[in-house]
Amino acid sequence: MRLAIDSLTTANRRKSSPRLEEELVRTRYEGFFRSSYTSRFQTWPPSPTDTFTNHDGIPEIDKADVSASVIRDGVLTRGSIIVRGLLSNVEVERLRATIDKAYQQHDRAMSGATRETTTPWFAPFTPSSAHNDHDFDRQWFRETGAELAADSPRGMFELLEIFTANGIDTLAGDYLGESPALSVKKTSLRRVPHDQPSEHGWHQDGAFLGQGIRTMNLWIALSDCGVDAPSMDMVPRRLNYIVPTGTEGAIFDWSVSSRQITEACDGGEPTHLHFKAGDAIVFDEMNLHRTSALPGMTKPRYAIEAWFFAPSCYPLDQLPLLV
After folding, report:
1. How far apart, in whole angstroms, are the C-alpha atoms of residue 42 and residue 274?
2. CATH superfamily name and code, 2-127+134-322
3. Which of 292, 277, 278 minimizes the C-alpha distance to 234?
4. CB under 8 Å, gap of 24 or more: what pairs does 97-102 form?
5. CB-CB contact of 164 with 175 (8 Å)
6. What is the pTM of this model?
7. Could you read off the pLDDT of 198-212 as tens digits, one per residue?
8. Which one of 37, 122, 196, 206 has the minimum C-beta count within 10 Å?
């Protein structure tokens, strides 16, 4: 399947084609089930070094210092790690334009436009019959400021081209110990409104994804975040357990209460993150965080969220896409 993906990618680079881009999404999905996988790691997680053990808060590095071992050390000892300047201004603008086009064509589809007229920017992904019981609440995704990247064949192509140009696909593979797969359900093109409700949204993705998995979530800011536009609040320490959800004070059965946040911070405070466009943060399913939209913010937040999973222990209900 790798040869088929490479061949389709090369052909689309020569001349972009809606047909090829939709076929690429389908091949990445179906190809996952026709391959076998093994990990280079005998146990998970691997033991980190003490690089960030005594670091106060979330560590930050520049793009030039990125490596799988450094990223793992940050995630496994401090819960996350920030990479400043991961993408260039040109790449940021390219992806912002991609997001706007995907949203525009999805809006047209909701108004009755046909798939033929909204493709390649919006062509809803449909899983195989083996997974056709999966519910895609696209209206809910949009209300929370997310567009599934798999629903935008050209958007997915643009995203993966930028990942390849920056070695992100290789980084994810080195981090996980095997060639990675993205999640259809959790990899998204994000445009979060400035007034997005966020007060009660604390969560760990591991509470939904299950045990025995290996993940690397790459979250990339495509606009300045934290002052005029929403950002994230994050518990700035590594948690090796799932914090109880739905306890006293929690508004939703899936969210974490403010009391639990205080305990998880172990005497400290959550960190309100600030990013410049092109900055990124890496974390995994154990990280405790929420979207943070504060009073007085006036701009939407553009971002990419890409969840990479190790195929050898992939939670199939997340619907895999080979990278």
Report:
1. 37
2. q2cbj1_9rhob like domain (2.60.120.620)
3. 292
4. 98/152, 98/154, 98/155, 98/158, 98/159, 98/189, 99/147, 99/155, 99/189, 99/190, 99/191, 99/222, 99/302, 100/191, 101/154, 101/155, 102/147, 102/151, 102/152, 102/154, 102/155, 102/189
5. no
6. 0.95
7. 666 899 999 989 889
8. 37
